[in-house]
Here is the input.
Amino acid sequence: MTVERRTMTLKEAKLSAKRSDRRQARYRLRRSLPLYVLLIPGLLMILVFHYLPMYGVVIGFKDYNIFAGANPIDAISVSPWVGLKFWNKLWIQSKFKQAITNTFIISAMKVVIGFPIPVILALMINEVRRTGTKRVLQTVMYLPHFISWVVVGALFMNLLGTSGIVNKIIVSMGGTTQKFFMDNKWFRWVLLLSSIWKESGWGTIVYLAAITGIDPALYEAARIDRANRFQQIWYVTLPGIAGTVVMMLILRLGGIMDAGFAQIQVMYNSTVYKSGDIIGTYVFREGLGKMNWSQGTIVGLFNSLINLILMFGGNYLSRRWTEKSIW
Amino acid sequence: MANKRKGAAFGLTAGERVFEFVNTFILIVIGLMMLLPFLQMASKSFSGETAVLTGNVWFWPVDFQTGTYKYVLRESQFWSSLKVSVIVTILGTAGAMIITCLTAYPLSKTWLYGRKFFVFLFVFCMLFSGGMVPSYILMKAIGFVNTMKVLIIPGMLGIYNMILLKNFFEEIPEALEESAQLDGAGSLRTLISIVLPMSLPAIATIGLFYAVGYWDNYMTGLIYIQKPEYKPLQLYLYELVVETQHVDNAGNPKTMEALEDAALNTESIRSATIMLTCVPIMCVYPFLQKYFVKGLRVGSVKG
Here is the structure.
C-alpha cells in the first residue's frame, strides 16, 4: 500500500521535474510558505548554536583574547590575525600527537572488536523462540544504553578498582592486583570493555529490525532443503541483513574521530594520558581548562575537518555499495 | 519471524533443541553480565561500612542498612542538583519535542520548495562543528554560562532525532492530511490533529531519547556550570566519582587527607547516590520499550 504510494509520488515528482515550468515552481513555493513558518524555530536553533560557532573557528587563526572587546564575540574581530601560528605550534606538541594517535587506536579497537558484537547478539536473540524470554532479554540488554557514562564509569571503577571483585578473583586465583584504571597496559581495554557493555545490546535493535524484513518463505525453503539452524543463519539471515551491516559500518567509520569523549572524561586520570588522552579530552583540558582559546579552537577545527572528510567518504561508499545515502 | 516459525515447534529435532538451549543459556549469561554491575552497586549501597571497606560484599547486602540513603537524602547539594535535573529534563524535553516536530514536518514534505537545501542545512550540523572553544565563547557572550539556560536550550534540537521523525512522517499517507486541509485546516492544525496522533510510537521514542539525553548529560554542566546551585545531578555524581581517583584531572596527586576523606565517607554513600540517579530511568524505560522498538523500526529502516 505504502510502497504503491511512494512510487506514485516518485513518478509524479519526475513528471513535475520534466514540466518544470515557472508556474509549477511558483505554485510549490506558495504552498510551501506556511511550512517555512514552522521551520523558523529549528532554523534559529541551528543558526545560533551550530553556524555561529562555525564562524568562531576564525579564533584559531587569531591571537584571541577574550577580554579584548566589549563582549567575547566582539573580541574576535578586535584580536589580531596570526595566520597559521597555532596550527604550526600543534605539530611540535607531543601531547597533541599522542591524543591523535590514541583517538585512532581506541576508535579502531572499538570498530574492529566492538562492531561485530551487536550483529552476533542480534542473530542469537533472533533465534530465541519464546517471546517472553526474548522480550526480557531485550529489555535487559537495552538498559545499559540508557545509563549515563558517569554511572557506567562508576560501575566499572567499582568492579575493576583495586579493591573491586575482579581483583579479588584475580588474587584468589594466585595473581597480583591490577590497577586497571591507572595502568597504560590495561586502560584502553577497560574503555573497550565498558563501551561494549553499554552499547552492544542497544546496537542489536537496528539488525533485529532488518531481520523482521526477511521473507519467511526463504526459511521454509531452507528447511525443506534440510538446512540446520546454523545454515539458516549463515545462508538466509546473514545475507538478509548484510546491507544494514554495511551501512552501519560506514556510519560507524564516519564517527571515528570521537573515540568516546564523555566516556573517557569520567574514566581517565593523568597516569593514563599516554594511552587514553584523546582529542576531546585534550581540547577540554588544554583549550578550555587552561584558556588557550586559539590553540583549542584549532585542534577542534582539525578534528571537525577530518570528521567531515570521513563522513563524506563514508556516504560516497554507502551510495556506491548499498545505493543508500545517509542524507 | 519467530512466531512464523512456531508452526514447526512440534517437529524440533534433538539437535535443534540442544542449539536452542545453548543459545538461550549464553544469552541469559550475557544478560546477567548486564545486570550484575548494578546488583553489586546496589548491594554495596545497602551494606554496612565495614563490610564494604573489607570487601566482603558480592551480590547481596551484608549487614543490611539504609543509613547511606538517609545520608544522601539529607545532603542539600543532592536535592538542589536533583531539582536542576528535573527542571532541565522536563522543560528541555517539552521544548525539544515542539521544535523537533515543527522542524521535521515541513522537511518530510517532498514538494517543499527548497527541501534539499534545508535538509542539507540541518545535516551539515552533524558533519561539521565549530568545536568546543567557539561554542564556549558563544555561550559566554550570550550570557548562558552558569545559568540553567545552557543546560536546556542548546539541546532542544537533536538533528538525528529530527531526521528519525522526518522519516516517520514521510510514511504517513498524505491523502489524510489533504482531506483535513480541504476542511480548512492550516499546516500547524494538520500537524497537531492528523500527523501527531498517527506518530505516537515515534513521538514516544524520541521523547524518551531526549529525556534520557537531558537526564544523563554531564558534559554540558562540566563545561559551562561552576555555580553549585545550577549543577545537575550527573555533574554532582561526576564530581563524587572523580574525587575517588588518586590523582585529579589536572594531574596533581591528591593529599593523603583528601584521599582518606573520599575513601571513608563515600564508598557506600556514593553507591547509594548512583542508585538513586538511576531510579527514574529504570522506572520509565521498561514501559516505553514497546513504543521505541516500533518507532525506531519505521524511522530507521530507511536509513
Remarks:
- Chain A has one domain: 85-322.
